[in-house]
Amino acid sequence: MGFSVQGKTAIVTGAGRGIGLAIAQHFVQAGANVMFVDNDEESLERQMSDYDTENGPVRYFTGNICEKLCSANLLSATLDAFERVDILVNAHRFVKGSDPLDTDPSVLEEMLRQNMISGLRLSQMIAKRMIKQAEGQADVQQAGAIVNISNLAASRPVPDLLGYSIACAAQEQSTRGLALALAPHRIRVNGVRFSSVMSHELKCALKEDADLRDQIVSGTPLGRIAAADEVAEAVHYLVSEGARFVTGQVMTVDGGRCLADPVTAQAL
């Protein structure tokens, strides 16, 4: 079966920068049609300068996917451009600190809405389209693939990011639940959990803390910080036919850091 995504259509949220951008760019290089999605219009438009967004395999959509109507418009825009959708990657993340002993309920609600509920709603919407596309195609092993991007905070609680940790754990549970629900429809749902990856947030943290890089590297068995594209490669595997018997799993991409090093808010 191989690992090709040539000609497939992928929607990638959080594609304005960091890991989401790396995933979207990786898919373009692999020959897929890609809808870049982000709520930061300026950042997204800046990334689009290298692409033909009129006639090429790339389109972009700006909007707040926490809003149900926005998600519906995203799906419509993707179908207008490419006529189908085969892959969804929920890479949008929102991180905000909170007092573990006095967490503002609005912060927790925002973390859940941004990091879990929006992706779950979009996954449900896209899955219905995937099911419709696969009608009458009994010989097709894979009707679609969904990947949720999570964080090591899901299993290694970070007190100063209590709301974010809870949201990441909820997202991973939604990955498992959707995997079971969608398996009869030949749609696979998996996750990728990262930690010591050169994300936008980590770059900002490294600028503020001169010693943080050495702390992360010394606590990572593979002895370095991963590039965002290494997360993209893991996602590529999970959406490909090469992973056609893999569903409901959360792959950890952190160089073995979860095995050896305490997690801190600055290192996520």
From TrEMBL:
For this UniProt record, the keywords arranged alphabetically read as follows: Oxidoreductase
Which Pfam families does this chain map to? adh_short_C2
Could you give a GO molecular-function term held by this entry?
oxidoreductase activity
Similarity remark:
Belongs to the short-chain dehydrogenases/reductases (SDR) family.
- Report what the protein is called: 7-alpha-hydroxysteroid dehydrogenase
